[in-house]
Amino acid sequence: MKNFITATIALLLPFLASAQITLSGKVTEGKANNNLPGATVALLQGTTTTIGDVSKSDGSYEIRNIRPGSYVLKVTYVGYQAYTKSLQLKGSSTINITLEPETNDRNLSEVFVSATRASSKTPTTFTNLNRKDLQKNNLGQDLPYLLGQTPSAVTTSDAGAGVGYTGIRIRGSDGTRINVTINGIPYNDSESQGSYFVDLPDVVSSVDNIQIQRGVGTSTNGAGAFGASINIQTSRRRDTGYVELNNSAGSYGTLKNTINAGTGLIGGHFSVDGRLSRIQTDGYIDRAHANLRSYFVSGAYYGKGSTLRLNVFSGHEKTYQAWNGVNADSVAAGNRTYNELGYIAANGTYYNNQTDNYTQTHYQLLYDQRISNTLSFNGALHYTKGAGYYEEYKNKANLEDYGVTPTNPANNITDLIRRLWLDNDFYGLTYNFKYNPNNDFNLIFGGAYNQYKGAHFSRIMSTVLNTGVPNNYEYSRDNAKKNDFNSFLRGEYQLGKFLLYADAQYRHIYYSFLGFDRNLKNVQQAVDLNFFNPKAGVTFDLTDRSNLYASWAVGHREPNRDDYINSTPASRPKAETLHDFELGYRTRGSVFTGGINGFYMLYKNQLVLTGSLNDVGAAIRTNVPDSYRAGVELDGQVKITNQLTWAANAALSRNRVKDFHQFLFNYDNNKQVETVYKNSNIAFSPDFVGNSELSFRPIKNGEIAFISKYVSKQYLDNTSNINPAGIPAAGNNAYVSDRLLKAYFVNNLRLGYNFKAGVFKNVGITLLVNNLFNVEYIANGATYPDIEGGQVVNYNYFFPQAKRNFLASLNLKF
Fold first, then answer.
1. 71: domain CATH number?
2. Which of 302, 464, 541, 667 would staple 497 via disulfide (CB 3.0–4.6 Å)?
3. Is residue 453 part of a domain?
């Protein structure tokens, strides 16, 4: 170890010895010559940001430890034109920069997104990802996988390799508890409350930046944020025309082809941008292929003090069903890819159209208007059309369950093919006014009104036996409607070194659905819910680059569609309430940027996961009176040398249900066995999640990144894997007897190099090796325990993730 440390220091000494130049100066604005605190000052070599700083309250900046060489100095600040200058640095220099206001208010659209975003001083915890961060790993995997290295995030993939149906949990909360907006417009499904990124394949290729807020966060539109919110902003204006080709290929027949093109600014007022993408894969799991298509078109008009933008984007997915997982016996036997969906007992073959098919198209009209120097307005009209079905083969189906009487009673039990359809419309408006009379005070008033209409209907496509049921026979239909209105008022006031923060939201929900009434009749009925969500906090500036913050926020969340339609008014779950307390410290500098955040999330009537799934893969939940999540999150990035950077984060938490009642059916006596668990673990909530990325740039525009992720064990239900007293578990194999996911540690390697060649402004080559050390691990699962023969039998199903696999990409920019 001593020799290793000595050798490492010796290797680093040449870098340290040459890094002695300092660049300093002041950033001011236009004719007024006012200081501009918070401007981003960066030195670039090619496309790589070598080192940088953020201007202080007096506008000054200082960048130290610069190696001699050629650089481009770039300074940016929202609402001002970017400043760039080529430099040949041989010794320390002083350069003062003056930024000019944007003549066409090109950044007005960012004001709209900022209405539901946290700023650098907002007293809540968040992570910002820019386009450069996202594109490094954008080789075909779904959006959750590109967010997987952020604090407290755990990603899952049904097909095992990150393409197709994927999911993300943040602080142990699944996708139904994570609010997602695109340009401030809600994306979560109104009924299930989940976000299905498979419906927008390759959306990241049209994204400029993303902010992830953990906990309740700031007021937003759409579904209640109980674990986190993901705020996505699509691509903004580019002044020069461009064409960009991205092609990726990798394991399991994975292919991705993307073309991006734009006109740049035409006549000082117009721009048009577009993207066309396709992704296909065979999947790691058997018969888990995916065929994905998408496009994105954006046209904008830039006026004096206003911007009008129309976005149209759409995605189509066809995926083979893999959401049931792999049974525990197959995993234990080493067959980690076995997918039994679609099995036909009659001839021992698989039905080859056991697929999910869905198309979703979004229309967004965004308008931004600067009314005066202190007041601006931003509004949006939106419409989303979704339609599709999943088709499945049902073995030995009883036609009585489908409300059908066959012409031949002897054929009442038959194999059949059915389709479950969803045809929905979602439309509405969002708005906000921002009042900013001076640098010490700002006020935002905003909200949204959205309406959802969804038709759920099911059809028997054909039967194997001659039953007299016509092909394409509709046997059920359920029409749902949901109105969602919210309004919020948020203010920030700088009082000396203190920033005082207050935020209050009112949300009203009307939901009409077909469900059981008190007499167990299936009738159309409705519920009305009203929520008030206050938030308050304070931030204290320790220095120009660091602060302490504390906040308290309340969130409410309604039950989802399954909770309503699978219950009566007497047994219907209650709405959930969350009190979220956050306390943190953050700092930003030229060498180290990071922070630490503590959280305590106290739930009332939380709907916790039981570990079971229904026949369409939806999680079954139950109300528990008291539960909580408490923990600490640490994240940081340190520039060890100009070539070597280390970014890491860790989340340690305790996630408990104070009083959980489990009911197991005992097949020995046909009775329910109730067990009460005290302070048991909340399902799918690891105690520790850690991420690391060690990035080394040995040559100009070249990078080697070693990426690691550790997730501690997770329980499949809320019993902490403890059986009822006196009843042992059946089986000796851990996969069969344990209701848990083992801890896993996975490492990836990314190699990247960019260069210019001929007509190409940039040629980028990337190789991503996932699961470098070929680890066998499982990221998700489900359990269906019961009691048989005096023992607890766990019918466990798992989602094994791919072993070593790779993706390689070629990027060409004209």
1. 2.60.40.10
2. 541
3. yes
